[in-house]
Protein backbone atom coordinates (compact mmCIF):
# COMPACT_ATOMS: atom_id res chain seq x y z
CA UNK A 1 0.00 0.00 0.00
CA UNK A 2 2.86 2.34 0.91
CA UNK A 3 4.60 1.66 -2.41
CA UNK A 4 1.37 2.45 -4.27
CA UNK A 5 1.05 5.75 -2.36
CA UNK A 6 4.64 6.59 -3.27
CA UNK A 7 3.98 5.85 -6.95
CA UNK A 8 0.83 7.98 -6.89
CA UNK A 9 2.73 10.83 -5.26
CA UNK A 10 5.53 10.55 -7.82
CA UNK A 11 3.00 10.64 -10.67
CA UNK A 12 1.34 13.71 -9.19
CA UNK A 13 4.69 15.46 -8.76
CA UNK A 14 5.68 14.53 -12.33
CA UNK A 15 2.41 15.91 -13.65
CA UNK A 16 2.89 19.16 -11.70
CA UNK A 17 6.42 19.49 -13.06
CA UNK A 18 5.18 18.94 -16.62
CA UNK A 19 2.44 21.54 -16.19
CA UNK A 20 4.94 24.00 -14.76
CA UNK A 21 7.28 23.39 -17.68
CA UNK A 22 4.45 23.92 -20.19
CA UNK A 23 3.47 27.14 -18.43
CA UNK A 24 7.07 28.33 -18.56
CA UNK A 25 7.29 27.59 -22.28
CA UNK A 26 4.02 29.43 -22.85
CA UNK A 27 5.30 32.49 -20.98
CA UNK A 28 8.45 32.43 -23.06
CA UNK A 29 6.42 32.20 -26.27
CA UNK A 30 7.55 28.64 -27.00
CA UNK A 31 5.02 25.90 -27.66
CA UNK A 32 5.52 22.18 -27.29
CA UNK A 33 5.55 20.45 -30.70
CA UNK A 34 2.23 18.66 -30.11
CA UNK A 35 0.60 21.83 -28.81
CA UNK A 36 1.92 23.84 -31.75
CA UNK A 37 0.60 21.26 -34.24
CA UNK A 38 -2.79 21.25 -32.52
CA UNK A 39 -2.93 25.04 -32.66
CA UNK A 40 -2.13 25.01 -36.39
CA UNK A 41 -4.84 22.42 -37.03
CA UNK A 42 -7.38 24.46 -35.07
CA UNK A 43 -6.55 27.58 -37.05
CA UNK A 44 -6.86 25.70 -40.34
CA UNK A 45 -10.19 24.17 -39.31
CA UNK A 46 -11.54 27.56 -38.24
CA UNK A 47 -10.49 29.13 -41.53
CA UNK A 48 -11.99 26.30 -43.57
CA UNK A 49 -15.31 26.40 -41.71
CA UNK A 50 -15.45 30.19 -42.11
CA UNK A 51 -14.93 29.92 -45.85
CA UNK A 52 -17.48 27.15 -46.38
CA UNK A 53 -20.21 28.82 -44.32
CA UNK A 54 -19.74 32.27 -45.83
CA UNK A 55 -19.69 31.10 -49.46
CA UNK A 56 -22.65 28.75 -49.17
CA UNK A 57 -24.71 31.58 -47.68
CA UNK A 58 -24.21 33.68 -50.82
CA UNK A 59 -23.87 30.94 -53.48
CA UNK A 60 -26.76 32.16 -55.70
CA UNK A 61 -25.25 35.65 -55.92
CA UNK A 62 -21.82 34.18 -56.64
CA UNK A 63 -23.16 32.23 -59.60
CA UNK A 64 -25.10 35.23 -60.94
CA UNK A 65 -21.99 37.40 -60.69
CA UNK A 66 -19.98 35.01 -62.87
CA UNK A 67 -22.79 34.72 -65.43
CA UNK A 68 -23.00 38.51 -65.68
CA UNK A 69 -19.24 38.80 -66.06
CA UNK A 70 -18.98 36.49 -69.07
CA UNK A 71 -22.31 36.81 -70.91
CA UNK A 72 -22.42 38.09 -74.49
CA UNK A 73 -23.62 41.75 -74.50
CA UNK A 74 -25.68 41.08 -77.64
CA UNK A 75 -27.65 38.16 -76.16
CA UNK A 76 -28.50 39.45 -72.71
CA UNK A 77 -30.14 36.88 -70.42
CA UNK A 78 -29.18 38.21 -67.03
CA UNK A 79 -30.05 41.86 -66.52
CA UNK A 80 -29.62 42.82 -62.88
CA UNK A 81 -29.68 41.02 -59.57
CA UNK A 82 -33.39 40.33 -59.04
CA UNK A 83 -34.12 39.56 -62.71
CA UNK A 84 -31.03 37.35 -62.95
CA UNK A 85 -31.95 35.30 -59.89
CA UNK A 86 -35.54 34.92 -61.13
CA UNK A 87 -34.30 33.79 -64.56
CA UNK A 88 -32.02 31.15 -63.02
CA UNK A 89 -34.85 29.92 -60.79
CA UNK A 90 -37.28 29.72 -63.71
CA UNK A 91 -34.92 28.07 -66.18
CA UNK A 92 -32.89 25.79 -63.87
CA UNK A 93 -34.83 25.55 -60.63
CA UNK A 94 -33.57 25.74 -57.05
CA UNK A 95 -30.51 23.61 -57.79
CA UNK A 96 -29.48 26.10 -60.48
CA UNK A 97 -28.99 28.76 -57.81
CA UNK A 98 -26.34 26.60 -56.17
CA UNK A 99 -24.72 25.18 -59.32
CA UNK A 100 -20.97 25.09 -58.85
CA UNK A 101 -21.21 25.65 -55.08
CA UNK A 102 -19.81 22.21 -54.30
CA UNK A 103 -16.78 23.02 -56.41
CA UNK A 104 -16.67 26.48 -54.90
CA UNK A 105 -16.63 25.09 -51.37
CA UNK A 106 -14.06 22.46 -52.34
CA UNK A 107 -11.87 25.38 -53.40
CA UNK A 108 -12.78 27.98 -50.79
CA UNK A 109 -12.46 25.73 -47.74
CA UNK A 110 -8.73 25.04 -48.25
CA UNK A 111 -8.26 28.55 -49.67
CA UNK A 112 -9.80 30.15 -46.60
CA UNK A 113 -7.90 27.86 -44.24
CA UNK A 114 -4.59 28.69 -45.91
CA UNK A 115 -5.45 32.39 -46.17
CA UNK A 116 -6.30 32.93 -42.50
CA UNK A 117 -3.38 30.85 -41.26
CA UNK A 118 -0.97 32.54 -43.70
CA UNK A 119 -2.16 35.94 -42.50
CA UNK A 120 -1.46 35.00 -38.90
CA UNK A 121 2.05 33.83 -39.72
CA UNK A 122 2.79 36.68 -42.14
CA UNK A 123 1.62 39.32 -39.66
CA UNK A 124 3.83 37.84 -36.96
CA UNK A 125 6.82 37.66 -39.33
CA UNK A 126 6.35 41.20 -40.67
CA UNK A 127 5.93 42.59 -37.15
CA UNK A 128 9.08 40.77 -36.01
CA UNK A 129 11.07 42.26 -38.90
CA UNK A 130 9.62 45.71 -38.22
CA UNK A 131 10.63 45.50 -34.56
CA UNK A 132 14.24 44.79 -35.54
CA UNK A 133 14.54 48.37 -36.77
CA UNK A 134 15.98 50.85 -34.23
CA UNK A 135 13.24 52.61 -32.31
CA UNK A 136 10.55 50.08 -33.24
CA UNK A 137 11.20 47.55 -30.49
CA UNK A 138 7.70 47.91 -29.00
CA UNK A 139 5.83 48.68 -32.23
CA UNK A 140 2.42 47.21 -32.97
CA UNK A 141 0.83 46.22 -36.26
CA UNK A 142 -0.17 49.25 -38.33
CA UNK A 143 -2.75 49.30 -41.15
CA UNK A 144 0.10 49.27 -43.70
CA UNK A 145 1.75 46.23 -42.08
CA UNK A 146 -1.61 44.47 -42.00
CA UNK A 147 -2.07 45.29 -45.67
CA UNK A 148 1.27 43.65 -46.45
CA UNK A 149 0.45 40.58 -44.37
CA UNK A 150 -2.96 40.27 -46.04
CA UNK A 151 -1.39 40.57 -49.49
CA UNK A 152 1.06 37.76 -48.69
CA UNK A 153 -1.76 35.57 -47.39
CA UNK A 154 -3.89 36.22 -50.45
CA UNK A 155 -1.10 35.37 -52.90
CA UNK A 156 -0.27 32.12 -51.10
CA UNK A 157 -3.89 31.00 -50.84
CA UNK A 158 -4.77 32.00 -54.41
CA UNK A 159 -1.78 30.23 -55.93
CA UNK A 160 -2.37 27.05 -53.92
CA UNK A 161 -5.99 26.66 -55.01
CA UNK A 162 -6.14 28.43 -58.38
CA UNK A 163 -6.86 25.38 -60.59
CA UNK A 164 -9.96 24.75 -58.47
CA UNK A 165 -11.11 28.31 -59.07
CA UNK A 166 -10.56 27.95 -62.81
CA UNK A 167 -12.72 24.81 -63.18
CA UNK A 168 -15.27 26.25 -60.74
CA UNK A 169 -15.82 29.10 -63.17
CA UNK A 170 -16.48 26.70 -66.03
CA UNK A 171 -18.80 24.49 -63.99
CA UNK A 172 -20.75 27.58 -62.96
CA UNK A 173 -21.18 28.86 -66.55
CA UNK A 174 -22.16 25.57 -68.23
CA UNK A 175 -25.85 24.72 -68.66
CA UNK A 176 -27.81 21.63 -69.70
CA UNK A 177 -27.70 22.86 -73.32
CA UNK A 178 -23.91 22.95 -73.44
CA UNK A 179 -22.58 20.45 -76.06
CA UNK A 180 -20.22 18.93 -73.51
CA UNK A 181 -20.71 18.65 -69.76
CA UNK A 182 -18.10 18.61 -67.04
CA UNK A 183 -19.38 16.00 -64.59
CA UNK A 184 -17.58 17.40 -61.59
CA UNK A 185 -14.41 18.90 -60.20
CA UNK A 186 -12.00 16.08 -61.02
CA UNK A 187 -13.54 15.42 -64.42
CA UNK A 188 -13.16 19.11 -65.28
CA UNK A 189 -9.57 19.19 -64.02
CA UNK A 190 -8.59 16.07 -65.97
CA UNK A 191 -10.39 17.22 -69.14
CA UNK A 192 -8.76 20.66 -69.15
CA UNK A 193 -5.37 19.10 -68.40
CA UNK A 194 -5.75 16.56 -71.21
CA UNK A 195 -7.23 18.83 -73.90
CA UNK A 196 -5.66 22.21 -73.11
CA UNK A 197 -2.52 21.43 -71.14
CA UNK A 198 -1.29 22.21 -67.64
CA UNK A 199 -0.92 25.93 -68.35
CA UNK A 200 -4.66 26.19 -68.96
CA UNK A 201 -5.28 25.47 -65.29
CA UNK A 202 -3.59 28.80 -64.49
CA UNK A 203 -5.26 30.99 -67.12
CA UNK A 204 -5.96 34.36 -65.56
CA UNK A 205 -3.52 33.73 -62.69
CA UNK A 206 -1.67 37.05 -63.12
CA UNK A 207 -4.71 39.35 -62.80
CA UNK A 208 -5.88 37.13 -59.95
CA UNK A 209 -2.64 37.63 -58.04
CA UNK A 210 -2.57 41.34 -58.80
CA UNK A 211 -6.22 41.62 -57.75
CA UNK A 212 -5.80 39.59 -54.58
CA UNK A 213 -3.15 41.98 -53.22
CA UNK A 214 -5.54 44.91 -52.68
CA UNK A 215 -8.57 42.68 -52.12
CA UNK A 216 -7.34 40.37 -49.37
CA UNK A 217 -4.86 42.95 -48.09
CA UNK A 218 -7.57 45.58 -47.64
CA UNK A 219 -9.98 43.05 -46.16
CA UNK A 220 -7.62 42.21 -43.32
CA UNK A 221 -6.25 45.74 -42.93
CA UNK A 222 -9.67 47.42 -42.76
CA UNK A 223 -11.20 44.74 -40.53
CA UNK A 224 -8.38 44.63 -38.00
CA UNK A 225 -7.82 48.41 -38.00
CA UNK A 226 -11.54 49.12 -37.50
CA UNK A 227 -11.65 46.67 -34.61
CA UNK A 228 -8.58 48.25 -33.00
CA UNK A 229 -10.00 51.75 -33.39
CA UNK A 230 -13.35 50.74 -31.91
CA UNK A 231 -11.65 49.02 -28.98
CA UNK A 232 -9.54 52.09 -28.22
CA UNK A 233 -12.04 54.87 -28.98
CA UNK A 234 -15.11 52.99 -27.69
CA UNK A 235 -17.57 55.19 -29.62
CA UNK A 236 -21.36 54.92 -29.31
CA UNK A 237 -21.03 52.31 -26.57
CA UNK A 238 -20.15 49.56 -29.06
CA UNK A 239 -17.59 47.94 -26.76
CA UNK A 240 -19.00 45.74 -24.02
CA UNK A 241 -16.81 44.08 -21.41
CA UNK A 242 -13.68 44.86 -23.48
CA UNK A 243 -15.11 42.90 -26.44
CA UNK A 244 -16.90 43.84 -29.64
CA UNK A 245 -20.34 42.37 -30.17
CA UNK A 246 -21.16 40.07 -33.09
CA UNK A 247 -23.16 42.80 -34.85
CA UNK A 248 -20.28 45.27 -34.59
CA UNK A 249 -17.79 42.71 -35.93
CA UNK A 250 -20.16 41.90 -38.79
CA UNK A 251 -20.25 45.62 -39.63
CA UNK A 252 -16.42 45.75 -39.60
CA UNK A 253 -16.29 42.75 -41.94
CA UNK A 254 -18.86 44.30 -44.26
CA UNK A 255 -16.87 47.53 -44.51
CA UNK A 256 -13.68 45.57 -45.18
CA UNK A 257 -15.30 43.52 -47.93
CA UNK A 258 -16.85 46.53 -49.62
CA UNK A 259 -13.56 48.43 -49.81
CA UNK A 260 -11.54 45.45 -51.02
CA UNK A 261 -13.91 44.23 -53.73
CA UNK A 262 -14.50 47.70 -55.17
CA UNK A 263 -10.78 48.20 -55.75
CA UNK A 264 -10.10 44.71 -57.14
CA UNK A 265 -13.28 43.97 -59.10
CA UNK A 266 -12.06 44.84 -62.66
CA UNK A 267 -9.24 42.34 -62.25
CA UNK A 268 -11.76 39.69 -61.23
CA UNK A 269 -13.73 40.28 -64.44
CA UNK A 270 -10.59 39.94 -66.56
CA UNK A 271 -9.51 36.83 -64.69
CA UNK A 272 -12.88 35.18 -65.31
CA UNK A 273 -12.82 35.96 -69.02
CA UNK A 274 -9.29 34.67 -69.41
CA UNK A 275 -10.36 31.42 -67.73
CA UNK A 276 -12.98 30.90 -70.45
CA UNK A 277 -10.38 31.07 -73.25
CA UNK A 278 -10.28 27.80 -75.19
CA UNK A 279 -13.66 26.60 -73.96
CA UNK A 280 -16.47 26.79 -76.50
CA UNK A 281 -19.10 24.91 -74.51
CA UNK A 282 -20.19 27.73 -72.22
CA UNK A 283 -23.59 29.29 -72.71
CA UNK A 284 -23.81 33.03 -73.39
CA UNK A 285 -20.08 33.61 -73.01
CA UNK A 286 -18.81 36.85 -74.49
CA UNK A 287 -16.57 36.47 -77.56
CA UNK A 288 -13.54 38.43 -78.61
CA UNK A 289 -15.45 40.98 -80.66
CA UNK A 290 -18.61 40.86 -78.53
CA UNK A 291 -20.74 39.84 -81.54
CA UNK A 292 -20.17 36.12 -81.76
CA UNK A 293 -18.05 36.47 -84.94
CA UNK A 294 -14.70 35.58 -83.42
CA UNK A 295 -13.56 33.08 -80.80
CA UNK A 296 -12.74 34.26 -77.32
CA UNK A 297 -8.98 34.89 -77.45
CA UNK A 298 -6.74 37.05 -75.30
CA UNK A 299 -2.96 37.12 -75.55
CA UNK A 300 -2.64 38.26 -71.95
CA UNK A 301 -4.02 40.39 -69.16
CA UNK A 302 -3.34 43.74 -70.86
CA UNK A 303 -4.89 42.50 -74.12
CA UNK A 304 -7.97 41.31 -72.22
CA UNK A 305 -8.37 44.73 -70.63
CA UNK A 306 -7.91 46.49 -73.98
CA UNK A 307 -10.40 44.33 -75.91
CA UNK A 308 -13.00 44.44 -73.16
CA UNK A 309 -12.93 48.23 -72.90
CA UNK A 310 -12.74 48.73 -76.69
CA UNK A 311 -15.68 46.48 -77.58
CA UNK A 312 -17.90 46.95 -74.54
CA UNK A 313 -16.80 50.11 -72.82
CA UNK A 314 -15.23 50.80 -69.43
CA UNK A 315 -18.42 49.76 -67.66
CA UNK A 316 -17.87 46.16 -68.73
CA UNK A 317 -15.07 45.96 -66.14
CA UNK A 318 -17.76 46.27 -63.48
CA UNK A 319 -20.29 43.78 -64.88
CA UNK A 320 -21.86 41.89 -62.03
CA UNK A 321 -20.67 44.44 -59.43
CA UNK A 322 -24.13 44.89 -57.91
CA UNK A 323 -24.77 41.20 -57.07
CA UNK A 324 -21.12 40.94 -56.09
CA UNK A 325 -21.50 43.87 -53.70
CA UNK A 326 -24.62 42.33 -52.21
CA UNK A 327 -22.69 39.06 -51.91
CA UNK A 328 -19.44 40.46 -50.54
CA UNK A 329 -20.95 42.42 -47.67
CA UNK A 330 -22.40 39.38 -45.85
CA UNK A 331 -19.78 36.95 -47.16
CA UNK A 332 -16.69 38.69 -45.79
CA UNK A 333 -18.50 39.65 -42.61
CA UNK A 334 -19.67 36.07 -42.00
CA UNK A 335 -16.20 34.70 -42.78
CA UNK A 336 -14.39 36.91 -40.26
CA UNK A 337 -16.92 36.45 -37.48
CA UNK A 338 -17.28 32.69 -38.07
CA UNK A 339 -13.50 32.32 -38.00
CA UNK A 340 -13.21 34.08 -34.65
CA UNK A 341 -16.19 32.22 -33.17
CA UNK A 342 -14.87 28.80 -34.24
CA UNK A 343 -11.44 29.61 -32.84
CA UNK A 344 -13.10 30.66 -29.60
CA UNK A 345 -15.03 27.35 -29.47
CA UNK A 346 -11.81 25.42 -30.18
CA UNK A 347 -9.98 27.34 -27.46
CA UNK A 348 -7.66 29.38 -29.67
CA UNK A 349 -6.99 33.08 -29.16
CA UNK A 350 -9.77 35.32 -30.53
CA UNK A 351 -7.63 37.86 -32.37
CA UNK A 352 -6.69 37.07 -35.95
CA UNK A 353 -3.22 38.52 -35.42
CA UNK A 354 -1.81 38.17 -31.92
TrEMBL record:
Alphabetized UniProt keyword annotations: Membrane, Mitochondrion, Mitochondrion inner membrane, Repeat, Transmembrane, Transmembrane helix, Transport
Topology with respect to the bilayer: Multi-pass membrane protein
InterPro entries, alphabetized: MCP, MCP_dom_sf, MCP_transmembrane
Solcar repeats: 38-125, 141-229, 244-345
Subcellular compartments: Mitochondrion inner membrane
Matching Gene3D superfamilies: Mitochondrial carrier domain (1.50.40.10)
Listed name of the protein: Mitochondrial adenine nucleotide transporter ADNT1
Naturally occurring in which organism (per UniProt): Vitis vinifera (Grape)
Amino acid sequence: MASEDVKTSEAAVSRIVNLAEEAKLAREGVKAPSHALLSVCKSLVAGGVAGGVSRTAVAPLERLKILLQVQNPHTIKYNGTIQGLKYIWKSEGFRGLFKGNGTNCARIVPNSAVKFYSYEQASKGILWLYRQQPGNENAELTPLLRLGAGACAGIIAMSATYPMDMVRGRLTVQTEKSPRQYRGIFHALSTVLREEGARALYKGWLPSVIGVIPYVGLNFAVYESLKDWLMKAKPFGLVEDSELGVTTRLACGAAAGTVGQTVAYPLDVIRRRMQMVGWKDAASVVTGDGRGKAPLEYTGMVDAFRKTVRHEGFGALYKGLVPNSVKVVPSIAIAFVTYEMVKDILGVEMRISD
